[in-house]
Design brief:
CATH topology of the largest domain: Hsp33 domain
CATH class of the largest domain: Alpha Beta
Number of strands: 14
Structural class: alpha+beta
CATH superfamily of the largest domain: Hsp33 domain
Strand content: 25-35%
Radius of gyration: 23 Å
Helix content: 25-40%
Number of helices: 12
Order of helices and strands: EEHHEEEHHEEHEEHHHEEHHEEHEH
Largest sheet: 11 strands, mixed
Length: 399
């Protein structure tokens, strides 16, 4: 099997193989639960060794890795509450030391994430507070949650301003203002003797019967009983420690039993999580095929074009002679390139010269190709590094 990051005799559009990235899954990554004695449901998320694999793809400062680990665990927990086919993503974009934070998870639990830090701004922020939380790192900006079920389905998206000191606070602000849903969110990420570990605890107040039965009338004894059950659950959840959340030797069901054994705890079927970067040689070839020939020539160095996936931090090298771009009329080139571009099934924007970066998945489209593999999401902001970028062959090799 050819290395999908390098040119080979196999046509690019046929190379959908997984690149050389870790093949790791955590079978019980998400443990859903509900309380039979009250209007409460939730999830306990434990990434386990998956956190180490995801957070070490880049050499981030521990403060940045901790923030990204929290985002990954949070995204996995929010995605597990939805019934969908596609991807659920969290993006925070601000003007601080970490201007871009992204995590997304598929319905199957495939998880990936990326954080971009500005070294000078990060050093300044950490000089003020060595344990800087999300607000100090992200600065002013917005937090966006998106459920993308593909081009045939409407995309659901919620965007709020960044409010709160921690990522958990920001998530609570989103649910209060956008969803009117009472939630309790606790996030933890730390480097342990076993490596990086990340966890999330998410609890929601729902209608009796998990949303099937109607809410009790305001002021009625039933309503007061439901409110008291929620307050009790909050008090018990407040005793959960970071050590319990991150301890591999303590199974999730035991953690939940410690908290809610007297409240009618019922465990639902656990869900797996896995390493989930979805880059492929065929997909990136489709991106390149959307550029004019002149731009492709400008990208090439020593006859090669190199693109880097920021999620898994792998370089994909393409032979310039094998890439056919757009013609002067804005139509795709012939042969295999036209097939690749058509298979991308993506949206179009106005071309630009000298694209700085490329993106796949859920971030703003900046490369401006007539067709692209990103979905130009979300629209409120542009700029900043995307998860896919074009680099010259020389800079990719470090020479």
């Amino acid at each position: 099997m050819p290395d999908p990051t390098l040119p080979s005799a196999t046509p690019d559009f046929l190379q959908h193989d997984r690149p050389p990235v870790p093949d790791l899954a955590v079978p019980r990554g998400v443990q859903p639960f509900h309380l039979q004695a009250g209007p409460v449901r939730g999830r306990l998320i434990r990434l386990g060794p998956l956190a180490e694999v995801l957070l070490t793809r880049h050499e981030n400062h521990p403060a940045v890795a901790r923030l990204l680990g929290q985002a990954l665990a949070l995204t996995a927990g929010l995605a597990a509450a939805l019934k969908y086919r596609g991807s659920f993503s969290l993006q925070a974009k601000g003007d601080g030391a970490v201007p871009m934070l992204l995590a997304d998870c598929t319905e199957a639990g495939a998880l990936r994430g990326y954080a971009r830090a500005e070294p000078a701004a990060l050093a300044a922020a950490l000089a003020v507070d060595a344990e800087a939380e999300a607000a100090a790192l992200l600065g002013q900006g917005y937090l966006a949650f998106t459920c993308d079920q593909g081009p045939e389905m409407d995309r659901y998206q919620g965007i709020v301003a960044i409010e709160g000191a921690t990522l958990a606070d920001m998530t609570g602000h989103y649910f209060r203002t956008s969803e009117q849903l009472r939630t309790h969110v606790r996030l933890a990420c730390a480097h342990t003797p076993a490596g990086w570990r990340a966890s999330a605890f998410i609890m929601e107040r729902v209608a009796v019967g998990g949303g099937i039965a109607p809410e009790a009338a305001e002021g009625s004894p039933e309503e007061e009983a439901q409110e008291e059950a929620w307050r009790t659950a909050l008090a018990l959840a407040g005793t959960l420690t970071e050590a319990e959340m991150l301890d591999d030797a303590l199974p999730p069901d035991q953690v939940l039993h410690r908290l809610f054994h007297a409240e009618g705890l019922a465990l639902d079927r656990p869900r797996p999580l896995s390493y989930g970067c979805r880059c492929s040689r065929a997909r990136l070839a489709g991106v390149l095929a959307g550029f004019p020939e002149e731009d492709l020539d400008h990208m090439a160095e020593a006859g090669a074009i190199t693109m880097t996936c920021e999620f898994c931090n792998l370089d994909f090298c393409f032979d310039r002679a094998e890439i056919r771009g757009m013609d002067a009329g804005g139509s795709a080139g012939g042969g295999l390139s036209r097939y690749i571009l058509g298979a991308a099934g993506c949206h179009g924007t106005k071309p630009r010269r000298q694209p700085a970066v490329h993106s796949i998945g859920v971030l703003p489209c900046r490369h401006g190709a007539p067709r692209c593999c990103c979905r130009c999401w979300p629209r409120p902001a542009a700029g900043g590094a995307m998860p896919f970028r074009r680099r010259s062959a020389r800079s990719a090799s470090g020479t």
